[in-house]
Amino acid sequence: MGSGCSTPARLAALMLTVLLAACAAGKSYVAADDAPPYARAGYLDARLALTRIIGAPLAPIVRNLRAPHGRLHGRAGLERFLRDALRPLDIVVIRSRPAATRLLIPGHFTHATVWLGTPAEMKALGVWSLSAVRPHRERLRAGRPVIEAARDAVQLSPMREITDVDEIVILRPRPGGRDWARAKYAGLFAAIGRPFDYNFDWTDKARLTCAELVAGVFPEFELPVRYTQGRFAIVPDDIVRAATIPGSRLRVVRYVAPADGNGFSASGGEAVLKLLSRPRDDAT
């Protein structure tokens, strides 16, 4: 006990080690129908039971175990490129900077956000006056054009949340008209404040992960439910995959990755296809 670490700190470190080791060993996933019979019958997996106990207390520790910046951080011209390329209600899926949290997400891409656009664009769509939007106007004016389920809750975030990362995919929904847009904005803003689901458990309807936020507001994407690490979940790779399917209501606009020097490359859907994970055929 001479190291200076308290017993609670030692216990937290031990639990964190066990949790991350278990997650690192089980990042693959299967279709929900291929989950073990006990899971499909509603019985709780021991891995999910563990994260329900220690997930929230350990979340602040896990969040801090990350690289200072993503590989795209500070790339010349990146922010201007994105502002020109993005349109309101684009889905921005990213591979986050190297971090312990990447061990919790199966697949290549690890986070999903929605680009809200500028106040002027929101006014043009007729959504600036929505009752769900009005309380958040000041933050939108102050430069928080991203909505995401992250850290502790669904929230509005600055642009750096989608630029200080390793890779970016811009996905664009098929336009549905002003009424469609109003319904999407109303759904997104109604979710602000909903607690983040540290357990990544699709069956927990009181809390949301980033991918669950997208799946709930955009049911037309028909995102599949997977079984991974002892729980049912929505996988970010599947959001990107949906945009590569012919006839989908979502398409790939740009895939952005670091390039030599201080630059970046922007390509299309073919580059993304090579990165996407695939479900296993069984739940062993």
Which SSEs are present, and which pair or pack?
Blueprint: H1 7-24, E1 30-31, H2 37-40, H3 46-64, H4 78-85, E2 91-95, E3 111-115, H5 119-125, H6 137-141, E4 146-150, E5 153-157, H7 160-163, E6 167-173, H8 177-190, H9 210-217, E7 226-228, E8 231-233, H10 236-242, E9 250-258, E10 264-267, H11 269-273
Antiparallel strand pairs: 1-7, 2-3, 2-6, 3-4, 4-5, 6-9, 7-8, 9-10
Could you walk me through the main structural features you see in this protein, from its secondary elements to its overall organization?
This protein is an alpha+beta fold and 284 residues long. Helices cover 35% and strands 17% of the residues. It has helices spanning 7-24, 37-40, 46-64, 78-85, 119-125, 137-141, 160-163, 177-190, 210-217, 236-242, 269-273, and strands at residues 30-31, 91-95, 111-115, 146-150, 153-157, 167-173, 226-228, 231-233, 250-258, 264-267. A 7-stranded antiparallel β-sheet has the order 5-4-3-2-6-9-10. A 3-stranded antiparallel β-sheet has the order 1-7-8, with no helix packed on it. It is globular and about 50 Å long.
